[in-house]
Amino acid sequence: MPVLDKVLHPTMSGGRVLTLILWPLAILTIAHRTVILAVNGDRTDDFTPVYNAALHFLRGQSVYSENYSTVDPHYLYPPSGTLLMAPIAYIDPEHSRWLFIIASVIVLLISAVLLVKLFGLPLDSWVLPAVLLFFFCTETVTHTLVFTNFNAFVLLGEVLFLMWMRKRWDLLAGVPIGITLAVKPVLAVLLLLPLLNRQWKVFITAIGIPLLLTLIAWPVSNDPSSFLRRTTPYLAEVRDYYNSSIAGNGLYFGIAPWLLYVLRIAFVLMAVFSLWFLYRYYRQSDELLWMTTSAGVLLCTSFLVSSLGQGYYSMLLFPLLMTVFVSGSTMRNWPAWVGVYGCMSLDSMLSHRWAAFGRAMEYNKVTWGWSLLMVAVFCVLLFRALDIRALSRRPSGHEHPSAHAVTVKS
């Protein structure tokens, strides 16, 4: 009977059960987002303006001649980005878009694997399929594929930058962030990390690559000066559509400008305190936690206080979210994950029964998600600062926060 019982009731660890559940869910979700949603597309199309710009560049035609008064997606990449995007126009638009989607999915898969390895977690555990399932269930990844834009490559650039910077491969660390800066400057704020960590060689490639690509692209472009004359002023403007920054959201809802300035200043001050605390107490004791949390704070703050913050930028916060596997993480509290729901959930809040409420929730969702995430991180660090202050008044002295990786078993 004991032998028969083992046959009828084989034992299996909880981690193994999770792995068996999560892998098919992750694979089928990835297939659905790629083959169905992404190929179907949507009314928002980020790929066509890039394809047309690349085609005009190859033909020696004007690239920066769009009418920026419309709400359609515009081509906003600098000449260096146009040079990098030019190869997509060598084949027809439909197949080029499909190849770009496939490349984006591959890049996202690589990013997930590298993030799991970055945090020292086993690839054969339930963590990897859980991360992949989370990735492809979010609004940020789904719309990156559906709208077909460059964000997946920016995420890979961020992950490689953090990995190689931590390994002190400084010149190499500057390469991925330099390539992304040549296309869009969303990761520029992360250059504060090598500056604080005195890894000066990072700047050689991080700044040198976009400069070199600009020097190559400028003389072969038809109208490179139009980027400075027409596109750059438009980028500096606060627009009231597809903009989840505080300024853009406030402009859409007609919020008083003075209140928007107060909110932006408040979040900058929260970021300054958070970065100071992380630098003082975590840089030496847990460099990974310092880098990834600081990166999240810098990026989230830039999304909120800059002139443009689009919801699908949220994927760049994945390294911050992964810190939940590390003791000392600022993500181990429920308000932070309510914020994550706000800025990453694919759920639509539009309501036929309560139209005004649903509209307000839908168009505020990403903004309050980023805001709550920032407030949660700030409050966690503030409470730790107060605890340290209280401990310092005791005869036994005080201790710095500890941060040790959690071991995840399959």
Report on this structure.
- The chain is an all-alpha fold.
- The chain folds into 2 domains: 212 residues, no CATH class; 173 residues, no CATH class.
- Helices cover 66% and strands 0% of the residues.
- It has 18 helices and no strands.
- Helix 2 runs parallel beside helix 6 and helix 2 runs parallel beside helix 7.
- It is globular and about 75 Å long.
- It starts with a helix and ends in an 18-residue tail after the last helix.
- The C terminus is likely disordered.
Keywords for this entry:
single chain; 410 residues; mainly alpha; 0% strand
Strand residue percentage:
under 5%
Beta-strand segment tally: 0
Helix content: 55-70%
Low-confidence stretches: 397-410
- Largest sheet, described in full? none
Shape: globular
In whole angstroms, the N-to-C terminal distance is 29 Å
From the alpha carbons, calculate the radius of gyration and give it in angstroms.
Answer: 23 Å
Task: Give the ordered list of helices and strands.
Answer: HHHHHHHHHHHHHHHHHH
Counted up, domains total: 2
Query: Helix- and strand-based class?
Result: mainly alpha
Mean pLDDT: 92
Number of helical regions = 18
Please outline the helices and strands.
Layout: H1 2-8, H2 14-40, H3 47-58, H4 79-85, H5 93-118, H6 127-137, H7 139-147, H8 151-166, H9 170-183, H10 192-196, H11 202-220, H12 224-236, H13 246-253, H14 257-281, H15 287-305, H16 318-322, H17 334-344, H18 355-392
Helix pairs in contact: 2-5, 2-6, 2-7, 4-11, 5-6, 5-8, 8-9, 9-11, 13-14, 14-15, 14-18, 15-18, 17-18
